[in-house]
Amino acid sequence: MGKVTGFLEIDRQVHKYQPASDRIRHFREFTLPMSDKEVEKQAARCMDCGIPYCHGPTGCPIHNQIPDWNDLVYNGDWDSAIRNLHSTNNFPEFTGRICPAPCEEACTLNLEDIPVAIKTVEQAIADKAYETGHIRPYPPERKTGKRVAIIGSGPAGMAAAQQLGRAGHDVHVYERESRPGGLMRYGIPDFKIEKHYIDRRIEQMQGEGVTFHCGVNVGVDKTVSELLAEYDAVLYCGGSETPRPANIPGDDLSGVYDAMPYLVQQNRRVGGEPIQSVAWPSHPIIASGQHVVVVGGGDTASDCIGTAFRQGAVRVTQLDIRPQPPEKEDKLAVWPYWATKMRTSSSQAEGAEREFQVATLEFIGEDGQLTGVRCCEVDEKRKPIAGTEFVIRADLAFIAIGFAGPAADSVMKELDGEIKVVTDSRRSKNVEANDRDYRTSVDRLYAAGDVRRGQSLVVWAIREGRQAARSIDEALMGSTVLPR
Fold first, then answer.
1. pTM of the predicted model, to two decimals?
2. Closest alpha carbon to 183 in 155, 210, 213
3. Which of 96, 141, 258, 309 would disulfide-bridge 243, Cβ 3.0–4.6 Å?
4. Contact 90, 83 (CB under 8 A)
């Protein structure tokens, strides 16, 4: 695929970034786009590797046909490339920006640390499709007369809604917030994905017949029972929103927050909305002039770091209980799977101080206000090492150690109570449904995305939304042409 000798002749290139000193002055995206010719050269590097691990099962969760659209881009056929990409992925402009790209980890050329720039090419294909007018409404030729309700408008709900709408069903999406997009809109900062990309997709889907009901908190304003009575099928696509409990003494001090209220609040500011959210109420949190500590080592922690720098934080320190990973993985031991190795996000590169193999023992304060974080080094079993304690000055601290399942109020309160849906055996209480038909224990109620599988990636949510849509269409019509 691509140019047969391209990987030998062309060096790997990806999007460049604005300098950190410039990009921390705004909340917009800061990648510098490559020209069409440069992208075509990168697509030409896709080699005829025989077994393309990039598109599954170790690479892309939605099985993007990566070698195929790389070849199309290399040959300048951008229109066919977007059609191919859309056959597996409803929203490549989302994944091309915020997916961690397990496909590149699984690329054969990653054995030499020079994988094909798959994520860069994917984003370029999607952006080019908007420029050329290819992404427009594609309404169904006929209506089925069936009605489907979707709870939640994150990537799983959006993907399912588009698939079901194009199949001819009357689709209604219920979103508790004032705008669609779920945590992709309110949880991921604008410097990673600007929200007009979501708005464009919503406009396209509305043109295809999908109806969005925003400001409707299902379980409070409208019950699940009412939806089941009004619709032929109901798909629950809520997120994993309950913060994982840290159980750190002093977490009740003023200045200590879970990560998500902070991120949601800033995203609402950037979007011109009031900072108070239905799910994440909080008084204003601003890092300007503050010493900030972020507890956690994942993407959410990194988003807090980038947000704090843009708000004018004096210093940001990240605490990670895991040991510092090696700079380079043992390829023969882990490839083509995702490797544990030293990775530096764009936000961390903006000046964060990173502490590895450190436990957060206590938040320290005076008169109820946070003043510092007491830490210590830990051994390989994460047990404190005597004599290694130290204190970091902190005016603000954000806990970003993951999420333990769906919110317990609203939808889940009704499902646990009156409806009695079966949840999994883990403490997270995710809604139980398999990944073949996505049916729950309640007739005509389906579940997909983080509320079913737990905290995960946008690309997994899109996959589950698409597969759930196929299952629903098949159940309603007796057969389906929707892809799995």
1. 0.96
2. 155
3. 258
4. no
